[in-house]
Design brief:
Chain B: Pfam families: ABC_tran. The complex is a heterodimer of chains A (414) and B (236). With 414 residues, chain A is an alpha+beta fold. Chain A contains 14 helices and 14 strands. Chain B is an alpha/beta fold and 236 residues long. Chain B has one domain: 3-Layer(aba) Sandwich (Rossmann fold). The chains are: A alpha+beta (414), B alpha/beta (236). The structure holds adenosine-5'-triphosphate and magnesium ion.
């Protein structure tokens, strides 16, 4: 008997009990569509959350002075630590020290307020590089321009301000080219950020960015930085780059024992990993619920196959009398079970896909988030694989029962 | 070499029933043998053993000179498919399949090329005179027609021997006559060996030989002196 004959025979067998087969397969349909829905929602949620926390970019690394805080009481110490200096920036910028670093930006936090013609406002004043911020957070100056490396080198008195700051100080009138005062020093507004709200660690609406050189020299009068932010080539090289940074800084700081480090490195990696662990755990939990559903569905299939084997005792006996071997009968009934659950799997994949698409539309409409509909090929492969496997596992026992029937018992059966 | 050779064959069922208590007879190629005996005497049991549908518990059964203990289940299934045809009292057709599909069934389990199957099945159906019913579901046929389909199915692999267990038992005499004419024809014109179980003397007398069985033993094994023609035997 060719495989094609076996499949045709199995299909005819199923056709004879169409509505019963349809009901039997319902459990599998539900189980598989749940898998597909879950996988699609899971990967959708994962990419959404990772996008949100990835505001600071997974390839961004922050270096802070002092010891890594191990408790709340330690926290203040980092602000006063003065270990990160320009030599560190220069050392990190050298390719031979850290080949995968693309850009290095020192930052400073300037306490205080800004004022313009009698209006005063208390934003977050950061000494840094606008280009770096734009790259890292994907927020670009809308009105005007950024200040560039030349401005930074020349300690220029220029500033890029957030939308809220602009509104508070200037109202509806134009801010570009106007001079705002920070600590009695005049800064020319060269650019305004669009309204973006919180992105990563920063509320861009409340931000004033001035060149870090200017902030260090004229606003704070210090010779160190509060933070150095580094951008690596890609998220994949982050762990390697962290090692490079630690080695480089230990050298410039003459530190032999890592315990004596006067700086510490923060990456998004840990957070990303945590989210992945949480989503993974959630998926695992839901998977086990689905697995139970599939087992129940599989038992349903086994039950109906056993009924079918009993009902068709006569047919089995006849086929054996006409020359069917045990293998032929086994294959016939096993194929029936596998085709049955396989069809359930295909229907389940379709329904699951439609549900996942519907869910993505609802999420988009309700939370106006940039949730993307993900329908991974792996889900299709898994759906087909799992459903046929269920057919195999729960079909093998009834099929064996069928194949072992003796022809005379079967023919005698009334 | 006899086609079939039984030597002191015994059969005890699992529940202890001793259905056969030492049966011996031979059937040559081309023979037409009727087995007669009262109900429960062991006729069907003999036929099941001869057709490899069941195994005997003692004695020797040689088919084409080889004892069946030499064969695996798979080989027995293959021989059954290639060399044996069965006709049962209860027809045993697949009700939801057409006449053609029913007759093609044994070919499915043989190595016959798929392209040849339909042609072979049509020839067998032609031989029992049912070509006009090819596409009918077997459940739509009369009893006599069903049994003719069963014979076509038994024929389709051109078997060495056809085993028929009371093939006319469920039929009226007119239909029974047609069945017997077909069997007679198969034996005379096509050389098929036929083993027929019946409890009607006038049916048995269309055979060349009658083996009488009683309580699981052969009581008599005689040639038929005055063979009836199937055509005449049912004119009651
Ligand atoms: N599977 C079985 N298990 C136990 N006993 C059986 C089995 N099949 C048949 N028998 C017994 O074996 C004996 C012979 O049965 P068998 O069917 O061969 O009789 P038979 O001659 O064909 O009768 P009938 O003319 O009624 O068909 C009977 O006593 C029967 O009850
Ligand atoms: Mg009987």
């Amino acid at each position: 008997m060719t495989l094609q004959d076996s499949i045709t025979t199995a299909l005819k067998g199923l056709q004879a009990t169409k509505s019963r087969s349809a009901l039997t397969v319902l459990g599998i349909v539900i189980g598989i569509s749940a898998i597909i829905l879950m996988m699609a929602l899971g990967s959708g949620a994962e990419s959404l959350i990772l996008n949100q926390i990835g505001g600071l970019g997974a390839e961004t690394i922050v270096i802070r002075p002092g010891k890594e805080p191990s408790g709340p009481s330690d926290f203040g110490s980092t602000l006063f630590a003065n270990s990160l200096k320009n030599r560190d920036v220069e050392a990190l910028s050298r390719k031979e020290n850290a080949p995968h670093i693309v850009e290095v930006m020192p930052t400073l936090v300037v306490p205080g307020s800004v004022s313009y013609e009698g209006e005063t406002y208390q934003p977050s004043i950061i000494g840094g590089s606008v280009d770096f911020f734009s790259e890292a957070f994907q927020v670009y100056v809308q009105d005007g321009v950024t200040f560039d490396d030349a401005d930074i080198r020349q300690n220029a008195n220029v500033a890029v301000i957030g939308a809220k700051v602009k509104e508070e100080l200037f109202g509806l009138s134009d801010a570009l080219g106007q001079n705002i005062a920070i600590k009695n020093r005049k800064f020319r507004v060269v650019g305004v950020f669009p309204k973006k709200g919180q992105v990563g660690f920063f509320n861009f609406d409340e931000l004033v960015i001035v060149p870090y050189t200017t902030a260090q020299l004229y606003l704070l009068g210090i010779d160190y930085y509060h933070e150095i932010i580094v951008k690596a080539e890609s998220p994949g090289v982050v762990p390697r780059t962290v090692n490079d940074i630690e080695a480089t800084l230990r050298e410039t700081h003459n530190i032999a024992d890592p315990k004596d480090d006067d700086f510490f490195v923060v990456t998004q990696q840990a957070l990303v990993e945590q989210v992945q662990v949480i989503i993974g755990a959630l998926t695992l939990f839901l998977s086990s619920v689905v697995a139970i559903a599939l087992v129940v569905g599989g038992i349903g299939v086994m039950n109906i196959m056993l009924v079918s084997v009993t009902e068709r005792t006569r047919e089995i006996g006849l086929r054996k009398a006409l020359g069917a071997t045990q293998k032929d009968i086994l294959l016939q009934f096993l194929l029936e079970a596998i085709i049955l659950t396989g069809i359930g799997g295909v229907i389940g994949i379709t329904i699951g896909g439609v549900l996942a698409f519907g869910a993505s539309l609802i999420v988009q409409a309700t939370f106006s988030s940039d949730w993307t509909f993900v329908f991974p090929i792996s889900a299709v492969v898994l759906g087909v694989g799992v459903s046929t496997a269920v057919g195999f596992v729960f079909g093998i026992y009834p099929a064996r029962q069928a194949s072992k029937k003796s022809p005379i018992e079967a023919l005698r059966y009334e | 070499m006899a086609l079939i050779e039984l030597e002191n064959v015994e059969k005890t069922y699992d529940d202890g029933t001793q259905a056969l208590r030492g049966i011996s007879f031979r059937i040559e190629k081309g023979d037409f043998v009727a087995i007669m005996g009262p109900s429960g005497s062991g006729k069907s049991t003999v036929l099941h053993i001869l057709g490899f549908l069941d195994r005997h518990t003692k004695g020797t059964y040689r088919f084409e000179g080889k004892t069946i203990d030499d064969y695996s289940d798979e080989e027995l299934a293959h021989i059954r498919n290639q060399k044996m045809g069965f006709v049962f009292q209860a027809f045993n057709l697949l009700p939801r399949a057409t006449v053609l599909e029913n007759v093609m069934l044994p070919l499915l389990y043989s190595s016959t090329r798929p392209s040849l199957r339909e042609q072979m099945a049509k020839e067998a159906i032609e031989a029992v005179g049912l070509s006009h019913r090819l596409g009918h579901l077997s459940s739509e046929l009369s009893g006599g027609e069903k049994q003719r389909v069963a014979i076509a199915r038994a024929l389709v692999n051109k078997p060495e021997v056809i085993f028929a267990d009371e093939p006319t038992g469920n039929l009226d005499s007119a239909s029974g006559k047609i069945i017997m004419e077909i069997l007679e024809d198969l034996n005379e014109k096509h050389g098929h060996t036929i083993l027929l179980i019946t409890h009607e003397t006038y049916t048995a007398e269309t055979a060349k030989r009658i083996v009488h069985i009683l309580d699981g033993k052969v009581e008599g094994d005689n040639g038929v002196n005055q063979r009836r023609r199937a055509h005449d035997s049912f004119v009651k």
